[in-house]
Amino acid sequence: MGRIGIYGGTFDPPHMGHICAAKAAIDALGLEELLVIPDRIAPHKTIPAGSPGPEQRLAMTALAFQGDPRIRVSDMELRREGTSYTYETVEALARQYPDRALVLLVGTDMFLSFFDWKHPEKILSKVTLGVLYRGDRGEAEAIEAQKARLEGMGHSVELVRNPVIPISSTDLRRMIVFRCAGSFLPPAVAAYIQEHGLYGTGRDYRDLPMEELERVVVSLLKKSRVAHVLGCRDTAVDLARHWGADVTDAARAGILHDITKALDGPLQLTLCREYGTMLSDFSKKYPKTLHALTGSLVAREVFGENEAVVTAIRSHTTGRGGMSLLEKIVYVADYMEPNRDFPGVERLRTLAYQDMDAALKLGLEMTLEHLARQGSQVSPQTRQALAELNG
Ligand code: FE
Ligand code: FE
């Protein structure tokens, strides 16, 4: 009888990456059957509002894998009380299928930390490990080393190359709020999420009061960026008061300016595609600078911000010719907020309250120097902004 694969995960939500990985594993490992097992989320974990319950994750997982007769979704971990440990699942399946060989699928991170799991030896006595890996540079060496270590102990490890562009569930939840997750979700799962208003899909994010906006923004940022964003907002508000700009616009542009920054280059490009935006050659070459553009699109389309705010977000990385006072304020605030620390920042902080154009010029020049050191190209918009100030 053929081998049974075991594929556990949180599936919050299940997405195309999971489906591709499952199919790749079935083919590469010659599995007769694959059991997909959504795990219990540890009770002590804080679950954000709008998250699905266990039954909803199970329902979504069933929808995601429906139609492939080789795949079965199991609720065995969801039914179990307390934390579910892999060794328990593996032992239960070994009892249930005494004459079948079992293959436990693990991702790269899990494979490399395998000996930190509870009772790794119990797991290894029941299963072969099937490792799904992307084959990125640097990854292969660590995997080979771990494989050799396990083989040295008499266990077999099989590698499955899974080169599909992965998306993490965390990024996927961001993309759902930005309304750009369509290409990553099986249609039936997307429909379920909509119907049940999961991950904030039913919510109207337009014109949120500042406190609520702050909560939403913080939930979408990487933790390491939160202090910067709040600092940028506070600095923008200070500068707006000082120079007589609209304080509310400054606060909203400040807090939203890096709203899409957590997403990598390919996801930035997905946002542009979903919003139907044409890209300049420069943006295509440097997709990381795209967060200013995609942030402005999200600010307009999702958060319903006005054009003054949208434009200030759009120009916050490169500047541009003909910047408004609000744009200059957000550009400079981003550069000098209290968490920034680099040679020259104090001079920028002083200048910002004396001469806004001089502060902007200093910021643009420092960007130019920084890019030159990196050997990166300078955006035509940065050049234009500087030419104007020098003119
Ligand atoms: Fe930024
Ligand atoms: Fe920033």
At a glance:
By secondary structure, the chain is of the alpha/beta class.
Q: What do you see in this structure?
A:
- This protein starts with a strand and ends with a helix.
- It has helices at 16-29, 54-65, 76-79, 86-96, 108-112, 120-124, 139-152, 169-177, 187-195, 210-220, 223-243, 247-256, 265-274, 281-285, 291-301, 307-314, 325-336, 345-352, 356-374, 380-390; strands at residues 3-9, 31-38, 71-73, 102-107, 127-133, 157-161.
- The model has no long low-confidence stretch (mean pLDDT 93).
- Helix 1 (16-29) links the parallel strand 1 (3-9) and strand 2.
- The longest helix is centred in the middle third of the chain and has 21 residues, at 223-243.
- The protein is of the alpha/beta class and 391 residues long.
- It has two domains: 3-167, HUPs (Rossmann fold); 207-389, Hypothetical protein af1432.
- The protein has 20 helices and six strands.
- A six-stranded parallel β-sheet has the order 3-2-1-4-5-6, with helices on both faces.
- One fe (iii) ion is lined by residues 228, 232, 257-258, 334.
- One fe (iii) ion binds at residues 228, 232, 257-258, 334.
Task: Looking at this protein, list some descriptive labels.
20 helices; 2 domains; 391 residues; Rossmann fold; elongated; alpha/beta; Hypothetical protein af1432; six-stranded parallel sheet; binds fe (iii) ion
Secondary-structure topology with pairs:
Layout: E1 3-9, H1 16-29, E2 31-38, H2 54-65, E3 71-73, H3 76-79, H4 86-96, E4 102-107, H5 108-112, H6 120-124, E5 127-133, H7 139-152, E6 157-161, H8 169-177, H9 187-195, H10 210-220, H11 223-243, H12 247-256, H13 265-274, H14 281-285, H15 291-301, H16 307-314, H17 325-336, H18 345-352, H19 356-374, H20 380-390
Parallel strand pairs: 1-2, 1-4, 2-3, 4-5, 5-6
Helix pairs in contact: 2-9, 10-12, 11-12, 11-17, 12-16, 12-17, 15-16, 16-17, 17-18, 17-19, 18-19, 19-20
Bound molecules: fe (iii) ion (2 copies).
